[in-house]
């Protein structure tokens, strides 16, 4: 063995033995994994849950084909100078594990509408990637999370807007078969519409009830729905098998968390089986909601820009009445309608109620 090879072997053996003794010393001090985390904290290492580990193979499927880019109204047509396209989310935020600090400025501007996923040939779950990164930022660097005030509102008043709404007016049933889960916005900012929805089902003699002091489902600020644990406990104790949700975001949150055990219906699914019919001679159309993911709350100007863009084809078609069934879509679309426009925006349930009275 030549001198250089012998010296290299010596160094390797020395390093290996030193590593063994170092591990032994750390183990004796009772540190172990915590010492590792502390040493590499500056490199933004973080733990993954078993479920998150299972997700990573799907997170890493993107091969930069660009098919998803035209599907994003936000990044392509409206805010291309300040917002990454879906491909950027799929790549840079998933492999390798991102520097979450650099993602924090834009990761909350994604609406998680999943339009990019619908066209992805690889089936990359881009919305799950976005929500994953948001959760990790909240865990590791909560000071960077833009919705701290809304979290505080939920802690104080159980409502994202910090308001404690009065109970809805309806006929109490002794043994209700349905739970009507109204959500934060229909209970506060869109309260008048919310009461009309309740009154519609009350007029139909539906055996339903509403939770007292309903809490936020968590979806508008994308914290994995953990704000509604109290509601989930109360719901399971009520022995009610079917939940009706007028809010698309509440529906999504409840479906994910209770869908295996309970029948979760968006109110449009329920109404499709009833006798109600729209009575109008006006030119009517329907806007199908997706999920806003808090953009309308955090960035109202951006959301307003999207609303105006979404309303263009309806206005060009001469639509006079535009219906939707999501409290956040309702609020945002109403923002996009100016006083000179002839179009009116209503909740579908609200409009049915108005047609019946």
Uncertain stretches: none
Tertiary shape: elongated
Using DSSP, what is the number of strands? 7
CATH topology-level fold name of the largest domain: Fumarate Reductase Iron-sulfur Protein, Chain B, domain 2
Coarse structural class: alpha/beta
Number of helices: 18
> What is the architecture of the largest domain at the second tier of CATH?
Orthogonal Bundle
CATH superfamily of the largest domain: Alpha-helical ferredoxin
Oligomeric state of the chains in view:
single chain
Q: Beta-sheet strand percentage?
A: 5-15%
Order of SSEs: HHHHHHHHHEHHEHEHEHEHHEHEH
What is the domain total for the residues? 3
Give the biggest beta sheet.
4 strands, parallel
Spatial strand order of the main sheet: 2-1-3-4
pLDDT averaged residue by residue: 82
Terminal residue distance? 98 Å
Q: Name the CATH class of the largest domain.
A: Mainly Alpha
Rounded Rg = 25 Å
Can you tell me about this structure?
The chain is of the alpha/beta class and 357 residues long. It folds into 3 domains: 50-144, Fumarate Reductase Iron-sulfur Protein, Chain B, domain 2 (Orthogonal Bundle); 178-271, Rossmann fold (3-Layer(aba) Sandwich); 284-356, no CATH class. The protein has helices at 3-28, 33-39, 50-59, 73-78, 86-92, 100-103, 115-119, 126-140, 148-157, 184-187, 191-203, 229-237, 248-258, 267-271, 295-298, 300-316, 327-336, 348-356, and strands at 178-180, 208-209, 242-245, 263-266, 284-287, 321-324, 344-347. The strands form 2 sheets. Strands 2-1-3-4 form a 4-stranded parallel β-sheet, sandwiched between helices. A 3-stranded parallel β-sheet has the order 5-6-7. Strand 3, helix 13 and strand 4 (263-266) form a beta-alpha-beta unit. Helix 11 packs across helix 18 and helix 16 packs across helix 17 (327-336). The longest helix is centred in the first third of the chain and has 26 residues, at 3-28. The radius of gyration is 25 Å and the shape is elongated. The protein starts with a helix and ends with a helix.
């Amino acid at each position: 063995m030549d001198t250089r090879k012998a010296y290299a072997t010596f160094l390797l053996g020395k390093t290996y033995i030193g590593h063994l003794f170092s591990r032994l010393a750390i183990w004796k001090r009772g540190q172990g994994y915590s010492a590792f985390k502390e040493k590499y904290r500056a490199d933004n290492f973080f733990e993954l849950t078993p479920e998150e580990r299972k997700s990573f193979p799907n997170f890493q499927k993107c091969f930069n084909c660009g098919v998803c880019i035209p599907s994003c109204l936000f990044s392509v047509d409206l805010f291309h100078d300040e917002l990454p396209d879906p491909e950027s989310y799929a790549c840079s935020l998933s492999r390798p594990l991102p520097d979450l600090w650099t993602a924090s400025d834009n990761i909350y501007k994604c609406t998680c509408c999943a339009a990019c996923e619908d066209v992805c040939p690889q089936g990359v779950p881009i919305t799950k990637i976005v929500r994953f990164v948001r959760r990790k930022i909240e865990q590791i660097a909560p000071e960077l999370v833009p919705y701290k005030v809304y979290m505080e509102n939920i802690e104080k008043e159980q409502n994202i807007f910090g308001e404690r709404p009065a109970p809805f007016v309806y006929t109490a049933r002794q043994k209700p078969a349905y739970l009507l889960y109204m959500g934060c916005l229909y209970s506060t900012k869109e309260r008048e519409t919310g009461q009309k929805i309740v009154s519609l089902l009350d007029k139909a003699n539906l055996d339903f009830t509403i939770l007292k002091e309903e809490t936020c489902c968590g979806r508008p600020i994308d914290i994995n729905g953990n704000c509604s644990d109290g509601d989930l406990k109360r719901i399971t104790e009520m022995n009610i098998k079917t939940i009706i949700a007028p809010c698309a975001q509440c529906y999504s949150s409840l479906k994910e968390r209770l869908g295996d055990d309970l029948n979760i219906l968006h109110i449009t699914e329920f109404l499709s089986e009833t006798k109600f019919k729209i009575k109008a001679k006006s030119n009517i159309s329907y806007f199908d909601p997706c999920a806003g993911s808090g953009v309308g709350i955090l960035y109202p100007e951006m959301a307003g820009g999207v609303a105006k863009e979404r309303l263009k084809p309806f206005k060009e078609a001469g639509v006079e009445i535009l219906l939707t069934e999501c409290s956040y879509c309702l609020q945002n679309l109403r923002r996009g309608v100016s006083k000179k426009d002839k179009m009116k925006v209503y909740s579908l349930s609200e409009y049915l109620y108005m047609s019946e009275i």
